[in-house]
Structures are given as C-alpha cells and as structure tokens.
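Why run this: before we spend reagent on co-expression, it is cheaper to look at a predicted model of the complex and decide which construct boundaries make sense. The entries below are exactly what would go into the expression plan.
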Amino acid sequence: MIPPDPPRFRLGTRRSPLAMAQAEEARARLAAAHGIEAAHIEIVPVTASGDRIQDRALAEIGGKALWTKELDAWLTAGEIDFAVHSAKDVETIRPEAIAIGAVLPREDVRDVLVGAASVTALPQGAIVGTSAPRRAAQLLHARPDCRVVTFRGNVATRLAKLAAGEVDATFLALAGLNRLGETGTGHPLDAEAWLPAPGQAAILIECRADDARTREFLAAVDDALSREAVLAERALLAALGGNCHSPIAVLTGREGAMLTIRAALYSPDGAERVEGETAFAADDLTAPARLAADLLARAPAAITVHFSGPATS
Ligand SMILES: NCc1[nH]cc(CCC(=O)O)c1CC(=O)O
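The model came back. Tokens follow.
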C-alpha cells in the first residue's frame, strides 16, 4: 500500500535574517507536531516595503503596514497558505479575510540595552540609537539628558553601527537576539521597570480565514497562554487607537486562572507618563479595552494627542 502524500504547505515570510529564523522555527514546530518532513513546508521569502526603505524611521513612512502588505497580498491571492510574523510588527486592524492561525510559545519579552550595563549607567548626554517611539520615550523619561537618534536596519546592521561608534548605545529585543543565536549580547532590562512593546517576542501565524485545512494544520502549534497574552495586548492597542507614533508599553502576566495586564503611555519626549493595571479572565478582551479607556481618561493632552481611541468602523 502506498502511504498518502503528507500535506504540503507554502509558508510566507519576510527575507530579513530574523524573519527567516522565525520561519524556520515555525516550520520545525509544525513538522514535529505533524510528524512530517520539514521539506513538506516550503518557505517562500517575500521582500517587504519596510525592508526596502532603510533610511527613514518606520513611523514616518507608513508604519507597520510596511511589514504585512506584501504577505497579505500573497496570502489572499493563494500564493502562500500562511504567513509568519513578529506579532509586534502586525497592525491591530487586519483584513477580514485574514485570521490568526497560531501564536507560537512566546520567547523572553525583555529589551536589552547594548553599549551600557543599564539605563542609569549610560554616560551623561549619551547618544542612543532607536526608532521605536516607545523606547525613545522610556529612555527620555528616565534620562532626559540623553539624545535619541533614528536607527533602523536589521539587528546585524544596528550592532555594526554601534560597533562603529555611530551611537553610544541601542536597544534590541532579547527574543530577536536569541532567535538569531546572538545570545549574550547586551544587558537585559527588567521587564517590570521597562515594559516591552505589545506583542513583543511572540510569533504570530496568519492564514486565510476561510481556509479550514490550514487552520487545522496551524492549530497543532498554537500556544494557548501566548495567544491569550498577545490577544489581550492587541485588544489594548486597538482600544487606544495607537499608531506607530504612539509610545505604548505593556506587560501581560498570569496569576492563577487570571491574566494581569500592565500598560504605560508616554508623551514622545518622555516628559509625561501614565500607567495602569488590571486583572481579568483570559477570554474577556473587554478588560484590556477598559484599561485603555481608563489610561486615556487620566492622561494629559501631551499623551492623548497621539491616540485616537477605539476605532469606530
Ligand atoms: N520592529 C522590528 C522587530 N520586530 C520584532 C523584533 C524582535 C523580536 C520580537 O520582539 O518578537 C524586532 C527587532 C527589535 O525590536 O529589536
């Protein structure tokens, strides 16, 4: 008897080294979960506009959509069966035809500081490279004497710029470094004191909402705890009406059967900060939305001008 052909799938990803590492991880987990050869999942790299434009801050040139636009088109056209993304890079408002098929087990959520042992150890007036409004605001809140300069490019490019002395220090996500095998680079910052970005360290796999075969295939690698945390953080972000100019930091934890979510909003210059926390049942995504409304109600105008509130569409 000839055994049936194992299922074949096309996995879409960006081409950056980090995106490729995430794609390999997703493929390995799927192959293991289904007992099939990795070769049955074909990795299809797509060049994203965000990767083509390197000289301007992401927020200036159109934000997170730059990472998903091409993969969305390939997915809806049926050129790929699913797309692997950093959850952090995926907008909160997504096309209706696209669904989250799985969230992989989350990596370490912490940021690392490269170039100094801690934020307090940065020299007076240090020049710090980052293009993330959250990291810039967090830094300036703690260290108004520092100067933030725009810093883009993939992880290796940023580390090379730092080594060349273009800046005194930079921030990177520990998860990205770990996935690239760059372990031991920089100094991890305490996640309670330096809250990460929404979705940080999570890999999100998207497929066509009406593609039952792929949804079932992806469900085998879905990590319920990671999914709950990521959905809560995305619900908070959606209710804030944040965009890529909006400095927002968030940490989700678990206490028994409950989730806790702690979030901070900043003015871009770091002068203003408002923080709040709530505990809720994991399936109650109205709780992060209520926290968002509470934060906006308490925030000064220097913060609220950067948030539009919940989308009405
Ligand atoms: N915006 C780029 C990006 N998207 C995801 C990661 C790291 C991995 C992750 O947070 O999942 C990074 C690089 C960084 O922030 O250092």
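The pocket of PBG is lined by residues 86, 88-89, 172-173, 175-176, 200-201 (CB under 6 Å). The chain has a mean pLDDT of 92. Bring this page to Monday's planning discussion.
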